[in-house]
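RECORD TYPE: inverse folding
INPUT: structure tokens
STRUCTURE:
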């Protein structure tokens, strides 16, 4: 009987192994069945009920595009075409829209073709204006490579950027005015952020219309004193092309910024006095609901003093309305929201957790809106009619993102989505409905339409195909675990075990993390590609884990800011101690623990294989910072201040200074056209490794940026990493 049971058990397990379809890299990278679908952007109309889509139509044997109006609730009900294919022609050539936006009264459409990306948030393309009443389609401008076109509040003009200058197109007279004339490549940028603002303040557009469309405020960036960074682009020519752009590194000179206001009526521009110290940042500009009052945020170089200013453009009186200070740093957000003409909503970590506050227009606190030992992650929306705020928070734990509503007075707080998992809502015009993407760490996102009180109206996408693939491959679920580090701080992470896990065996471990300031790699949400990549590693017999150490978000200011002035120190320590914790589990092969990370995670990988050489057999560093003096100043100085004032903080936490300690297997990967973490980082580290005669593997992807993608690149990259893992870990 015992023999029979044992044989049957072995047979059953063998059946599972051989019946289970084998995951392969090519499928999970290229096949649509392994990808999440995009949640439709829903170009909503002002009534909050109807939306627009583009469709394909064949006319005179030519594929053309038309735009159709739909009812949000009854998506099968088609309404009139508001833009027919025959209208989408300019000089006999068809126009193929990639996107479109309405002006405020929905009398005109701004239509764009497929954009060309410049940096992380900026792009350019050609735009067209379609007048719904006259049914006439016209080019926005005869100038190509237009950027950031923005309707005026009345919809009678559009401001845009072309070659670092600002233009305004009057849609009534059809005349175009050039507002600035000094724009010049690598010298002056008007209304468009310099590289470091765009990357680190996550904002490329620095111009804005006032409430009545009579003024345009903009920031001018003088990059003259910023040093250039040069990259070679290999295009098969005898001599490589060169790409140069201004990139201020830690401790180096920044752009000098000016704040200006252009008067449409007088065609004159006037500057706002920003003070005697030119070494400042203007991370945000935003008009209040009063057309005569502009707000701007002024941040000092050390980023620990943030001032909210109001400028009255009638009297030109500039007032500091609110000041946010910190012994560490102050984060920049987009939570500033004006409430009628009575006050504004502001977010702050001053209580020890990130919360929302309501101030009057003089900067006097009216009331704290949210409160508790948890962080508001995002202010998603504010409904000016009901005075309700909609926000996501970590009230149910660092890993979760739950949606709540609350009145501006802090009352009637209501939970609108599950406590477990991640809600990512988008509120639609009219505040009748919101779209939500919900997922957890083991469940692909479900896209749903909700009424404003949170009730589900209908399911838009359940990703059944992805769930079928999970079942087909019999993948294992990630499970959360916690442990205390040597400083008695509880750290959280997840673990994903091989399919036929046997606790009596010893398994190698593939650790993965990002762990940069304000991140959460162990968040309770679906991460599509990583799920399949980690499942493939499970298939190869590896346990996969991820731990969020100190510096990550969702656990209050002290936890997030604990890495200040020693960026990388506690993060490295926590990952080493995570490896130590894992090595003490009975089913872990302590001699086969590896780590892989990208960007800040790649930086950690470089430190772990050197500072943690006794605990890691192998590490893969993709696009790592290897010396903090090579990285941009806004990011680096926020957490380390300047190299001149914190020499030890830079030296003690730069991998290049510890390369000589590497004993394990190390794979270094970088894109040669990485405009963010420059290829210089890996080349300098490689030079140091050669200097100490340390063997390592090195892979360079020509002309690829920080994302290292395009064509077969991702397949090649992950094939390289998989082969390294199987051979060296």
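DESIGNED SEQUENCE:
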């Amino acid at each position: 009987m015992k023999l029979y049971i044992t044989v049957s058990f072995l047979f059953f397990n063998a059946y599972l192994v051989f019946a289970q379809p084998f995951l392969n890299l090519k499928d999970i990278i290229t096949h649509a069945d392994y990808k999440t679908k995009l949640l439709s952007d829903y170009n909503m109309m002002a009534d909050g009920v109807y939306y627009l889509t583009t469709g394909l139509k064949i006319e005179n044997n030519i594929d053309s595009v038309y735009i159709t109006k739909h009812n949000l609730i009854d998506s099968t009900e088609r309404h009139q075409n508001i833009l027919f294919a025959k209208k989408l022609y300019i000089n006999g050539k068809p126009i193929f829209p990639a996107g479109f936006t309405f002006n405020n009264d929905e009398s005109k459409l701004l239509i764009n073709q497929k954009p060309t990306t410049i940096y992380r948030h900026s792009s350019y393309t050609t735009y067209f204006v379609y007048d719904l009443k006259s049914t006439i389609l016209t080019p926005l401008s005869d100038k190509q490579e237009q950027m950031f076109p923005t309707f005026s509040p009345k919809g009678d003009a559009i401001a845009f950027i072309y070659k670092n200058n600002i233009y305004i197109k009057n849609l009534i007279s059809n005349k175009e005015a050039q507002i600035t004339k000094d724009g010049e490549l690598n010298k002056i940028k008007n209304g468009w952020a310099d590289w470091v603002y765009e990357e680190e303040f996550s904002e490329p557009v620095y111009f804005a219309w006032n409430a009545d469309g009579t003024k345009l405020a903009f920031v001018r960036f003088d990059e003259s004193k910023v040093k250039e960074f040069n990259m070679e682009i290999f295009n098969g020519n005898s001599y490589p092309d060169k790409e140069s752009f201004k990139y201020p590194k830690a401790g180096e000179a920044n752009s000098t910024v000016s704040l200006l206001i252009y008067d449409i009526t007088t065609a004159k521009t006037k500057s706002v006095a920003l003070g005697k110290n030119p070494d400042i940042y203007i991370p945000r500009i935003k008009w209040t609901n009063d057309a005569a009052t502009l707000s701007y945020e002024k941040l000092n170089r050390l980023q620990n003093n943030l001032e909210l200013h109001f400028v009255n453009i009638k009297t030109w009186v500039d007032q500091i309305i609110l000041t946010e200070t910190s012994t560490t740093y102050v984060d920049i957000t987009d939570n500033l929201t004006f409430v009628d003409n009575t006050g504004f909503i502001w977010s702050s970590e001053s209580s020890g957790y990130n919360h929302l506050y309501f101030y009057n227009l003089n900067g006097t606190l009216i009331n704290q809106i949210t409160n508790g030992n948890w962080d508001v992650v995002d202010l998603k929306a504010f409904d000016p009619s009901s005075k309700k705020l909609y926000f996501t928070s970590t009230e149910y734990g660092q890993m979760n993102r739950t949606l709540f509503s609350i009145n501006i007075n802090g009352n009637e707080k209501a939970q609108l989505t599950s406590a477990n998992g991640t809600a990512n809502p988008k509120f639609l015009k009219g505040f009748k409905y919101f779209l939500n993407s919900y997922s957890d760490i083991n469940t692909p996102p479900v896209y749903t339409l909700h009424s404003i009180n949170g009730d589900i109206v209908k399911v838009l996408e359940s990703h059944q195909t992805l769930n079928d693939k999970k079942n087909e491959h019999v993948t294992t679920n990630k499970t959360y675990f916690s442990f205390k580090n040597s400083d008695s701080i509880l750290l959280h992470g997840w673990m994903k075990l091989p399919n036929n896990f046997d606790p009596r065996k010893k398994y190698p471990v593939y650790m993965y993390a990002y762990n940069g300031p304000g991140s959460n790699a162990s968040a309770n949400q679906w991460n599509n590609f990583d799920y399949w990549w980690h499942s493939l590693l499970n298939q190869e017999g590896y346990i996969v884990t991820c731990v969020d150490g100190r510096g990550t978000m969702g656990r209050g200011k002290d936890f997030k800011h604990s890495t200040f002035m020693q960026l990388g120190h506690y993060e490295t320590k926590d990952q080493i101690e995570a490896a130590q914790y894992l090595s003490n589990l009975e089913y872990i092969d302590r001699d086969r623990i590896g780590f892989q990370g990208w960007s800040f995670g790649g930086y950690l990988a470089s430190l772990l294989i050197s500072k943690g050489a006794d605990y890691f057999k192998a590490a893969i560093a993709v696009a790592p910072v290897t010396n903090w003096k090579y990285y941009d100043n806004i990011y680096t100085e926020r957490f380390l201040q300047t190299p001149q004032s914190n020499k030890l903080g830079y030296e003690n936490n730069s991998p290049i200074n510890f390369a000589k300690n590497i004993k394990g297997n190390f794979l270094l990967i970088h894109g040669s056209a990485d405009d963010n973490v420059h290829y210089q980082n890996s080349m300098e580290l490689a030079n140091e490794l050669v200097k100490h005669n340390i063997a390592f593997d090195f892979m360079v992807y020509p002309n690829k940026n920080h994302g290292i993608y395009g064509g077969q690149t991702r397949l090649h990259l992950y094939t390289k990493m998989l082969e390294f893992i199987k051979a060296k870990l």
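NOTES: Confidence is low (pLDDT under 50) at residues 1-18.
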